[in-house]
């Protein structure tokens, strides 16, 4: 899930140290730590899901879609690293909003046995990246997945859920930031369009006047310009990985089975010292 900060001049920019990235030209990456009636009663109908499908399909049809993949490649790699941190394998996994398969390409068949990859855009699925893991591509909306409950051992999602209308507040934790330095605001907007990340909110303005855009670009550059003349945009990433319990994983001890109380933990150093003296 992605949130873009520093797009408008009044948003506070979190700091990050820049480093060059491959095939970005003047762009540099920095590392920081549907149907309206079908949604749940408490969901807000903010985004036009049909428009988002068209935007992603348009982006996937471009002659060089990989030109705009630098952010999705980076985040896909980071999510794969988090999967490897889980000490077990996953026979059946699901990638929700997979795009061209940015997570699967960084995983191996020893960790994931079979990967279902779903996306709202059929053109993205046609350009799925190769991976050693057996995969199944499914055209599906993130809000209406066609799978039975308790089907998968692992569920991942990368840079897709921020356009979902019904998203639990629980995703507002465990955040990462990636800063990209652009030649100017217009290059940033070009790349967002190329990623299929243009605004699809129902209340969006259909057209911004040229004078408004030029004024915004001037203010943006004046307030945030780097020493090398580039302007930064900070992408705030929300990670979510869910997996099913497996017998190979350690279970927590039963409640009340502890042999030492919290009150005695303060004496731990004394107890260890006594133990060493008695040896």
UniProtKB/TrEMBL annotation:
An example Gene Ontology biological process: mitochondrial respiratory chain complex I assembly
Domain of life of the source: Eukaryota
Entry GO MF terms: S-adenosylmethionine-dependent methyltransferase activity
Keywords: Methyltransferase, Signal, Transferase
Methyltransferase type domain span: 94-172
Signal peptide (from-to): 1-18
Gene Ontology CC annotations of this record: mitochondrion
Entries under PANTHER family matching the protein: ARGININE-HYDROXYLASE NDUFAF5, MITOCHONDRIAL
Family the UniProt entry places it in: Belongs to the methyltransferase superfamily.
Name of the protein in question: Arginine-hydroxylase NDUFAF5, mitochondrial
């Amino acid at each position: 899930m992605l949130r873009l900060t520093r797009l408008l001049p009044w948003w506070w920019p979190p700091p990050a140290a820049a480093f060059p990235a491959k095939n970005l030209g003047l762009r540099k990456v920095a590392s920081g730590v549907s149907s309206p009636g079908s949604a749940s009663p408490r969901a807000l109908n903010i985004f036009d899901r049909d428009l988002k499908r068209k935007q992603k399909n348009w982006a996937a049809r471009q002659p060089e879609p990989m030109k705009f993949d630098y952010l999705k490649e980076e985040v896909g790699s980071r999510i794969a690293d988090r999967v490897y941190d889980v000490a077990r394998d996953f026979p059946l996994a699901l990638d929700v909003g997979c795009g061209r398969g940015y997570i699967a390409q960084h995983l191996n068949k020893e960790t994931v046995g079979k990967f279902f990859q779903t996306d709202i855009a059929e053109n993205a699925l046609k350009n799925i990246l190769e991976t050693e893991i057996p995969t199944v591509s499914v055209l599906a909306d993130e809000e209406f997945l066609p799978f039975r409950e308790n089907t998968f051992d692992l569920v991942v999602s990368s840079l897709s859920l921020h356009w979902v209308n019904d998203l639990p507040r629980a995703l507002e934790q465990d955040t990462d930031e990636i800063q990209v330095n652009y030649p100017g605001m217009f290059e940033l907007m070009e790349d967002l369009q190329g990623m299929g990340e243009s605004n699809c909110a129902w209340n969006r303005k259909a057209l911004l006047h040229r004078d408004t855009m030029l004024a915004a670009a001037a203010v943006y550059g004046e307030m945030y310009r780097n020493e090398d003349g580039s302007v930064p945009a900070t992408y705030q990433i929300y990670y979510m990985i869910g997996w099913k319990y497996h017998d190979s994983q350690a279970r927590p001890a039963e409640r009340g089975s502890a042999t030492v109380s919290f009150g005695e933990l303060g004496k731990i150093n004394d107890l260890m010292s006594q133990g060493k003296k008695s040896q």
